[in-house]
Amino acid sequence: MERNTQLIGISVDSNSSHLAWVYDIYLKTGIHIPFPIVSDKMGKIVNMYGMIAPNISTDTTVRNVFIIDPNGIIRAILIYPLSNGRHIPEIIRLLTAMQLSYREGVATPANWCPGDPVVVPSPKTYDELLERVSSSEYDCVSWYLCYKDIY
C-alpha cells in the first residue's frame, strides 16, 4: 500500500489450485502472498481483457499486468510471454512515473527513473514561453522541451 495501490492476481486455475500454489510458495520460501488471487475458471474475465493468446494457448493466460486508475480506466498494459516472468522493478517504475505525472502535471522521458528530471508541458502562450526560457527553474533544450527537478 506504499504506493496507494492494490495488487490482484487472476488466473483460469481453480481456487483449490491457487490455495495449493500459495501454500507451496510459503512452504518453499517462507513468503506469504500478500494479495488476493481471483479464480476465473470459466475465463469470463480473462477473455474480456484479452489475457488468452489463442495463437499460443487456448486455456492458459499470458502474463499480463494492467495498471488501472481509481476510476477503473486501464492506463497501461504490459504483456509478457508465457515463457518469461514479469520484471517487477519496471512495473514499479512505470506505476511511480504515472502517479508522478498525474500528481505534478508533468511527463517522464524515455528511460526515466525516480529522481531524474521530468518534462514540463509546453507553454500555451507567448508570455509563458518567454517566462519559461528565462527561468532558472527549468533546463530547456528548446522553448517547447524543458526539464525540471521534482525531488
Task: Describe the overall structure.
There is one protein chain. The protein is of the alpha+beta class. The chain has a domain at 108-150: 2-Layer Sandwich (Antioxidant, Horf6, Chain A, domain 2). Helices cover 30% and strands 20% of the residues. It is built from 4 helices and 7 strands; from the N terminus they run βαβαββαβαββ. The chain has helices spanning 15-29, 44-48, 88-104, 126-133; strands at residues 9-11, 37-39, 63-68, 74-80, 118-120, 139-142, 145-148. It has a 3-stranded antiparallel β-sheet, with no helix packed on it. Strands 1-2 form a two-stranded parallel ribbon. A two-stranded antiparallel sheet has the order 3-4. The longest helix has 17 residues, at 88-104. The protein is elongated and about 65 Å long.
CATH A-level architecture of the domain at 108-150: 2-Layer Sandwich
What class would the helix/strand composition place it in? alpha+beta
**CATH secondary-structure class of the domain at 108-150:** Alpha Beta
State the fourth-level CATH superfamily of the domain at 108-150.
Antioxidant, Horf6, Chain A, domain2
How much is the average pLDDT?
Answer: 90
CATH topology of the domain at 108-150: Antioxidant, Horf6, Chain A, domain 2
Following the backbone from N to C, one meets helices and strands in this order, namely: EHEHEEHEHEE
Radius of gyration: 21 Å
Number of helices: 4
Strand order of the largest sheet: 5-7-6
Distance between the termini: 21 Å
Low-confidence parts lasting 5 or more residues at pLDDT below 50? Answer: none
The tally of strands reads 7
**What overall form do the CA principal axes indicate?**
elongated
- Biggest β-sheet strands, sense, barrel: 3 strands, antiparallel
Portion of residues within helices = 25-40%
* Portion in beta strands: 15-25%
